[in-house]
Design a protein that fits this description.
The complex is a heterodimer. By secondary structure, chain A is mainly α. In chain A, 47% of the residues lie in helices and 0% in strands. In chain B, the strands form 3 sheets. A 9-stranded mixed beta sheet of chain B has the order 5-4-6-7-1-8-13-12-11, with helices on both faces.
């Protein structure tokens, strides 16, 4: 499945909302995700893309937009 | 072998409801409750110091243990909100207890201070026999500094907790403990001189959500236990949503995690020992896990077994 499409699916699952954020839109500032959804997002990304995200990379801005998430996952593959 | 003999606590008289603190920082009371589980907190009086509160918690602990101050071999005091850089509250608390030569050491590592001090004490009782751990915080004095952050100021409260560890006997024996630090995130939760406490909440929650369950797992494995077999978890009372998330990550019911954050807010390093003093339900053979996390980041956990 297309990576971006899968990321959007994960965001929908974690946020429990059907909104599709624009690629560069902040998931937090837009209110789509809150602080407590962030750990769920990271865990879901690890499982979906079979990557281990180290604590050193657990920096909120790396996961703030669909574009940044995509770029990060690309770098981990 | 190290044992926990007793806990103690002190909470200031003044109750500050969400409505009062919310009005101070233009925040809705309901928002405070929803994001943190906090409904009220205690504020110390203007002349009540970290050492005053710590002394009260120490006296409560020693009374519960039926131990006199003269029997103490060492005092460890955790505080991140002390009124001055030095001397810290440890020596002052010792003096208030009537001691004039007992080694008294400050452990200024903020919210994880009580789990750090408990761990250090558990390793030091072999040499110092009876070690009193005190954690005392006057968070109102730092969280309400100007300019106030409406997302941070309402979360904190004042209070003190204490725990007496001994080498001989007690209500529970320490089976395992683990403490860790990672300074890579030092900027995400800090208290600069003369400025209010600054917190990157997203980073704190993200890191704490991973590091606390990992530390708990570490002590469970070291003690040969499983999470399901633990009677009660008592962790730093930072945020009810975080406590629930840790319970979920560890794989146990949220009800297994003792909580009093609704009444006292986040009292930083004091919170875990205040919670322990209110819970205080050791039973023979029942295991209990303590856990903390805070600025630094510092974090850790301890596994004990009721005797």
């Amino acid at each position: 499945m297309d990576r971006r499409k899968r990321i959007l699916e994960i965001i929908r699952d974690v946020s429990k909302r059907s909104d599709a954020p624009a690629p560069g839109e902040s998931l937090f500032e837009s209110g789509l995700l809150d602080s407590f959804a962030l750990p769920d997002l990271v865990t879901a990304l690890e499982e979906a893309f079979s990557v281990k995200i180290p604590d050193a990379d657990l920096i909120p801005r790396k996961f703030d937009t669909v574009e940044r998430i995509e770029s990060y996952i690309e770098g981990r593959k | 072998m190290a044992y926990i003999k007793a806990f103690g606590k002190y909470l200031p008289q003044r109750v500050v409801e969400n409505g009062e603190i919310g009005a101070l920082v233009s925040t809705e009371p309901e928002w405070i409750r929803n994001v943190s589980g906090i409904e009220q907190r205690r504020f110390a009086g203007p002349f009540e110091t970290v050492a005053d509160m710590g002394h009260c918690a120490a006296c409560d602990c020693l009374a519960r243990a039926d131990v006199s101050p003269s029997e103490l071999g060492m005092i460890l005091v955790s505080s991140g909100s002390s009124e001055r850089s030095f001397p810290g509250p440890a020596a002052v608390i010792a003096s208030k207890l009537g001691l004039d030569a007992t080694p008294s050491i400050d452990v200024p590592v903020a919210s994880a201070g009580s789990i750090f001090a408990l761990t250090l004490a558990s390793r030091l009782v072999a040499a110092y026999r009876n070690i009193l751990v005190v954690a005392s915080e006057k968070m109102s004095s730092v969280a309400l500094r100007e300019p106030r952050d409406r997302g941070v100021a309402p979360l904190f409260g004042d209070g003190a907790g204490a725990c007496l560890l001994t080498a001989d006997d007690g209500k529970a024996r320490v089976l395992a403990s683990a403490i860790h630090s990672d300074g890579a995130f030092a900027e995400d939760l800090k208290l600069p001189f003369d400025k209010p406490l600054e917190m990157n909440g997203r980073s704190v929650i993200l890191q704490a959500s991973r590091k606390i369950p990992r530390a708990i797992q570490e002590v469970l494995e070291a003690g040969g236990r499983t999470a399901a077999a633990i009677d009660t978890f008592v962790m730093h009372q930072a945020n009810q949503n975080l406590i629930n998330r840790v319970a979920q990550a560890v794989g146990v019911a949220e009800s297994k995690f003792f909580s009093n954050i609704a009444r006292y807010g986040n009292t930083s390093s004091a919170s875990m020992l205040i919670a322990a003093a209110e819970w205080d339900g050791f039973r023979a053979g029942a295991d209990v896990v303590f856990a903390g996390f805070g600025a630094g980041f510092h974090w850790g956990a301890m596994l004990v077994e009721g005797v």
